[in-house]
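Exam revision sheet. Question 4 asks you to relate a sequence to its structure. Input first:
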Amino acid sequence: MSSSPVRHRTVPVRVGPVTVGGDHPVVVQSMTNTDTADALRTAVQVAELARAGSEIVRITVNSEDAARAVPEIRERLDAMDLDVPLVGDFHFNGHKLLTKYPECAEALAKLRINPGNVGRGSKRDAQYQAMIETAIRFDRPVRIGVNWGSLDQELLARMMDENAQQPEPLEPQAVMEQALITSALESAAEAERIGLPHDRIILSAKVSGVQPLIRVYQDLAARCDYPLHLGLTEAGMGARGIVASTAALSVLLQQGIGDTIRISLTPEPGGDRTQEVSVAQEILQSMGLRSFLPSVVACPGCGRTSSEYFQHLAQDIQSYIRQQMPTWKQHYPGVEEMTVAVMGCVVNGPGESKHADIGISLPGTGEQPVAPVYEDGEKTVTLKGEHIAEDFQARVEAYIERRYGQAG
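Answer key, structure tokens:
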């Protein structure tokens, strides 16, 4: 793996069996979109996300039915032998739910509190304090998650008024960004004043624009040592959401900023919720920060590759690897760092295959119908005939057993 960026120094925070911050790897998070009151459906989706690689999963706790369901969700996950930490997402009525249903707080590994949605006016401080006191009582960490769509309007109005009095006022956008940071830091300071330990606090300050997100987190990182949760809020659907999230988070991660990430994709109707987990993993792996599963290198295709054969093989190999990883992870330590090349013609095929741990160079248009296979830089066999795909998959399996098995 390539050398990683120097991480911004943060205080480690325990979230159940997972540690966020410090020298620990950047953690992948996700969130369910089921009705939490439906304990079975929610537990099933949490399990799907966890098995896809989400190391922490957040669930909405927005009603008494949802709060009552949280312990059952935890029990169902435990019965599946899944110790993935659950984070409760609270807005507006969180103080009431946590007070009335302490078993909900006990079943959660972390509380997420949005300072802009804990109350208005004179009620705000008391309601915020009630939630922090619950976290203290159950020794739970808190993510203070500020969002520009629900920013504390009293704070923003105060900062806008103060800015207007300055000789050279800032643009409203800049004031809003500073208000996000101020809300996060002031809320963290208040939580510590109430009694929450410094090492039980994680911060986030999410916006939906790439450049504002980068600016906010750069400033936030410069002003605190709390672990930071990264994410472009309301990133969008499909390619737009993936590209925007990747653009923003990659810049910050390269600067060593960020201890845990979530890719907030809007799923296609009937789409797979686990896509956001896969994208988060791909970002971290592409940045050289973590390895989750073997990388498949494949050429984009050109006029030399009029056949779609190599595309199907690359897709099949990638799907096969993802399906096998839960088993491989247990039996073949280090396999997640392996590289497999599936190339479509003689131009770059042999070279890329030699650079990979194991690779195949398929014949392009007009080339001889043979496919040399390279392992650890050396040509080991030439495949021919109608079963090249099956034969290459068998070679991959044998290579993994030999290199990463106990004998290897």
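Marking note for examiners. The mean pLDDT is 95.
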